[in-house]
Amino acid sequence: MNYDVIIIGAGSMGMAAGYYLSKSGKKTLLLDSFHPPHNKGSHHGETRIIRYAYAEGEEYVPFILKAQELWNELERDTGKPLFIPTGVLSVGNKESNFIQNTISSSTIYSLPLEVMNPVEVQNRWSGITMPNDFIGCFEPSSGVLKCEESIKAYQMLAEMNGATILSNCRVKEIHIQEEKVTIKTIDKTFHSDSLVIAAGAWSGHLLSMMDLDLPLTPVRKTFAWFDAIEKIYNSNDFPAFAFETSQGLYYGFPSVDGAGLKVGRHDGGERINPDEVMKQFGEIVEDRGDLIQFLNQYLPGIGQLKYGKTCMYTLTPDDKFVIDVHPKYSNVAIAAGFSGHGFKFSSAVGQALSNLIVSGKNEIDISQFSIDRFYN
Ligand SMILES: Cc1cc2nc3c(=O)[nH]c(=O)nc-3n(C[C@H](O)[C@H](O)[C@H](O)COP(=O)(O)OP(=O)(O)OC[C@H]3O[C@@H](n4cnc5c(N)ncnc54)[C@H](O)[C@@H]3O)c2cc1C
């Protein structure tokens, strides 16, 4: 079977790319090992934070603003509510890079940000306590994306545009010869002019089949829901949050539809092979204790653990993404290494991948995500 483009991985980035490529008139095939959205990769757990005054660096801001514009379009085009306007509160030592970068990203791009001392934070959200040398930066226009629902929304539009999505169809082999792509699964062979690799934690393995060795490290991550007093922690009143503490960087979500407060830790995690069975939440003793010590210290009103889950990050050495064309094959675009903060960008990443395939360039500068940074 012949296609204009094959996308390997119909998860966060791949499904969005499938929408934009099919919209541009490309005959598009998406292949996924599982049935997206699913709980085997990096995109499950109901919610993801989206914030614009970016603590990771102001260079991300134009890309994230583009992403939000595209999320708004997706909501409008599907009629599905995908964004919950909770606002996001970033908390940390006032001298830290995390806080200083948040403030400078907001200043440079004139993004609304309320900088608050501990008393102001605690007066506004009685569920929080924090040390005197910390400050809070509240971004009222940011919030939470429904992750599985967003992937389903792109899937619906991609299929309406004529894209084919094959689930439970794991790619085993990739061959590229004279600008023609051949993809093999266990029992099928497909051909195309172009290829997109958006395989999350499995990207390193697939890229190694194409003579590309990128520093991508899959790690095990955990997150959990806790009982929470709805009057205080519900998503109309309580923000999504990120706390940089001396123990680690923790993030979380207010109770959405009575689900409880969700919390996870961003830094750390055990290096894993995504093809091996991962230890379940709680199999490592620190899974619970780590989150509970954070909650006891900063959100002391939170109740019992309800349940936890595991998920995967794919880290790069600088925590920046890889969004680029294969150095040897100009008809292959790659999106990988989202380092635990990529979901919010996935609308804009999908559009960028489509642009790289269609015209070789993207309207928003994505050179910070280039492959050659690893070799210079
Ligand atoms: C617990 C947790 C919390 C997070 N919180 C946030 C947050 O608050 N905000 C934020 O912006 N980001 C967050 N992230 C990060 C974000 O979710 C990821 O960066 C993003 O989902 C990565 O998308 P992806 O497309 O690379 O991977 P995925 O969404 O996992 O998609 C990859 C797909 O490729 C498929 N695949 C792999 N190999 C093959 C193959 N050989 N053949 C066919 N298909 C294949 C997989 O089945 C999968 O469906 C979080 C991540 C985790 C784990």
From TrEMBL:
Membrane spanning residue stretches: none
Keywords: FAD, Flavoprotein, Oxidoreductase
Cofactor(s) needed: FAD
Gene behind this protein: solA
EC number(s) given by UniProt: 1.5.3.2
One Pfam family cited in the UniProt record for this chain: DAO
Domain of life: Bacteria
Boundaries of every FAD dependent oxidoreductase domain copy: 4-355
InterPro entries: FAD-dep_OxRdtase, FAD/NAD-bd_sf, MTOX
Single annotated GO MF: N-methyl-L-amino-acid oxidase activity
Catalytic EC class: oxidoreductase
Protein name: N-methyl-L-tryptophan oxidase
